[in-house]
Amino acid sequence: MNHINKIDDADLTRRVKSGEKEAYQILFERYAPKIYHFALSYLKSTADSEELVQDVFLKVWEKRDILDATQNIKAFIFKIAINTIYDFIRRKNIETAFQEFSKANYSTGSNNTWDTVIFEEMQTTINRLVAQMPEQRRKIFKLSKSKGLTNDEIAKELQLSKRTVENQLYRALVFLKEHLQKDSVFALLFFYLFYS
Predict the structure, then answer these.
(1) What CA dihedral angle connects 96, 121, 180 and 130, to 10 degrees?
(2) What is the pTM of this model?
(3) CATH number reported for the structural domain that contains residue 183 in this entry
């Protein structure tokens, strides 16, 4: 195993792209500690940072077919890490919003059941609304909000112009905002989910 540990990033990238699990393990060992410390500086939690490292490298493996040995694999991994950290913080903001809203509006004490019910209900409502969107808009929205892809990445994956992606995302958000305004709870949480 020692000889393969000495291979450069470009060769390692080629091997991971071809599905070589040993190379993927080495890539993990090479960069996981760096991602962990990077995440810890933002998340301030060892458990959250460890979970984030697992998420990042799972995404690297899932996206291995788009790896390019001529590009910087370290930069690619850190880009995924930054997007994952952003998504993680955004989810935390949502949870905080639920807790603050319920404390301000309901006398549920320390019971978290209400927060969980509202969160799950909002997710169900959003999923139902997303299902009503035209197919292309629905795909773009899911790639952006569920998988965390950038507009450029979505355009490349779906073979569309970046302008089309931006336009469809804008229309999707307007559609959701219009339908969620009827309920103050959902409107508040939608704001935290997509604009925080």
Answers:
(1) 110
(2) 0.50
(3) 1.10.10.10
